[in-house]
Structures are given as C-alpha cells and as structure tokens.
Specification:
- This protein starts with a strand and ends with a strand.
- It has helices at 48-54, 70-73, 76-81, 110-132, 159-172, 181-189, 242-248, 270-277; strands at 2-7, 15-21, 24-30, 59-60, 62-64, 85-86, 88-91, 135-138, 143-147, 150-155, 197-202, 205-209, 228-230, 252-255, 282-285, 302-307, 313-314.
- The protein has 316 residues and is an alpha/beta fold.
- Helices cover 25% and strands 24% of the residues.
- Strands 8-7-5-3-2-1-16-17 form an 8-stranded mixed sheet, with no helix packed on it. A 7-stranded mixed sheet has the order 9-10-11-12-13-14-15, with helices on one face.
C-alpha cells in the first residue's frame, strides 16, 4: 500500500510517502516546507515536523529536496531538531563539506541576499546530516530508484543548466573565488526552473510531482498519463500549459497553496485549475482555499491519497 500525504504547510511543499510492503513501512519525504508558519485561525496548516511527529514518524528512509527555496527546504532544520533520523538525502546540490558559510554583501540585491540565506541554512543542515551518518545522493541527471514495488524517478529537466547553477553555488562558498553578481542573480532566479521533479510508479498508477519546475520547460517531453498530479509553483500562471494538461490528463490534481488567494502572483490560478477541470480532473488544494466549483473548502492538515495493493486509488 502507498499513501501520499500532501501536508498542509500553507504556501510551500512537503509530501510524505508512506510505503508499506509485507511487514515493513518506509517513509520518504519530498521537500520540508518552511521553518516557520504564520498563524491563521481559518486554516489547519502545520509544520511538516509536527505532522511527522504526530504520525510517529521518527525516521525517514529518504528525503528529496527539489530545490533551495525556503518554502521547500527550510523545514529540514525543524526535522533535525526533533531528532528525526534521515538515512538518505537526494538533491541536485550539496554545499562543500569543508566550506564556511557565505559572507553576504549588504549592498547586494534582495534576490541574491535571499539565495545566500537559503544556501547558508541548507549548509548548516547538511553539516548536521553528515555528522549523523546520512548518505548524500547527488542527482544532476535523471535517476531511477527502486524500493520493492515502488519506483521513484527523480527527474532533472535540464542537466546542463543545473550543473551551471551548481557551479555558481559552489563558488559562493569559497571566499577566494570571485563570482560575477549577474551570474549569481541568474543562478538564484533559476532555482524554480532547475527544480527536480519526482515521478512515482506504484501498482500501475503514476504520480507526477513537479516541484516548482514551470510546465513550459518540460511540456515537450514524452509524458504518460498520470493518476495524481501535484502542480508546480503553487498552481500559478507558470505552473502548467495546455500541452502538459493534455499529455498528463490526470484523474486528480493537488495544488499546494495558502488559504488566501495571492492576486499579485495569481496564486493559485483558477485559470490553471480550470484547464484540468475541463478534462474531468478533480482538483484539490492543500489549504482551506475556497474554489467556486467546490461545495466546501478542503479543511484539513493534509490531503491524503491511498493506493491499495490491487492498484485502487482512494481519494480524500
């Protein structure tokens, strides 16, 4: 049996895979959400760590970090502080083990400051993971991983662009290497486009988890129809294209978002959701966002799908 928990971490991503095979249950977490959430009395949002602790998950066989934005990676600090063990971490970039934190120039633009802050937080968390004996698995090209009857494909949409970005990230950690500010800005802006994607196959069902990789970047790939699709980038206008919607033709879709609509980002975009609805897809939101086609909001701490041993999908 496989359960996919799309945890309500508001405007962020944290997806827990609960895979049961014979007498064993393993847990794999894809992204960790933020480290801090603003209170909202109309939402059941919670930190990823609190969801794991409540479910008595104190060991993750795998942790996949799709990219280094705080809404996907910063929650790792909470997980480590809670004493939750991580056996293996999968990511496209790991900071150099022998490097110090990056020194930020106060005059640099906000995008670069935010990147440096994210890299330093990640650097400290990776230090702790190394000390704990966690195995580091670098994914700079598409790779397949098999866990009995569970197949996880981690997809790097553009390996060359990813490696170029990682080279800039690495250089930042060495103070004696001069890095052009324009290159750093471009690497910071490329975090979403270079986001890893995750495709899961279980009992004949396909789950497509797109990280924050904009649909226009991978719409020309050969794509099989999927059963469950997590939209990239919180379902905004960049998330999918008509080609993606037609190729994937999902039965169910999940949009990770906060309760309140963000007009400045059109997030979540009802136009993007409508593109899927018009193809017979049922669309869910991780937070209590009120969509005009739903009789009731999705009022939960996680949107959970179950795929049984015979391949049936039990939707929320």
């Amino acid at each position: 049996m496989l359960k996919i928990h799309f945890i309500n971490v508001a405007d962020g991503d944290a997806i827990l895979l609960e895979h049961s095979y014979e007498e064993k249950t393993r847990y794999i977490l894809i992204d960790t959400g933020r480290s801090v959430l603003q209170d909202d009395p109309l939402s059941k949002r919670m930190l990823a760590v609190d969801y794991l602790k409540r479910a008595d998950v104190m060991r993750l066989e795998g942790l996949i970090i799709t990219h280094l934005h705080l809404d996907h990676s910063a929650g790792l600090e909470n997980i480590l502080n809670a004493g939750i063990a991580v056996d293996n971490i999968y990511a496209s970039f790991f900071p150099p083990a022998d490097a110090d934190d990056i020194m930020a120039d106060s005059a640099c633009v906000k995008t670069i400051r935010n990147l440096i802050g994210s890299l330093n937080i990640y650097h400290q968390n990776c230090k702790r993971l190394r000390q704990s004996g966690c195995a580091f698995v670098e994914v700079t090209d598409t790779r397949d991983f098999f866990f009995e009857d569970l197949h996880i494909k981690i997809i790097c949409t553009d390996p060359l662009a990813n490696k170029a970005q990682n080279s800039i990230f690495s250089d930042l950690f060495y103070q004696n290497i001069a890095v052009d500010a324009d290159d750093v800005y471009a690497a910071a802006a490329a975090r979403n486009p270079n986001s890893l994607r995750v495709r899961i196959t279980y009992r004949g069902k396909i789950i497509e988890l797109a990280g924050d990789s904009y649909g226009s970047l991978w719409e020309n790939e050969k794509l099989d129809r999927c059963d469950i699709f997590k939209l990239p980038h919180h379902g905004d206008q960049k998330s999918i294209t008509p080609t993606i919607a037609e190729k994937l033709y999902p039965r169910y879709a999940v949009i990770s978002c906060q309760r309140a609509y963000m007009p400045e980002k059109d997030r979540p975009s009802l136009q993007m959701a409508q593109m899927l609805l018009s193809r017979g897809c049922k669309v869910y939101f991780t937070d209590s966002f009120g969509a005009p086609w739903n009789d009731a909001v999705c009022d939960w701490d996680a949107c959970v799908f179950t795929i049984t041993d015979n391949g049936d999908i039990v939707a929320p």
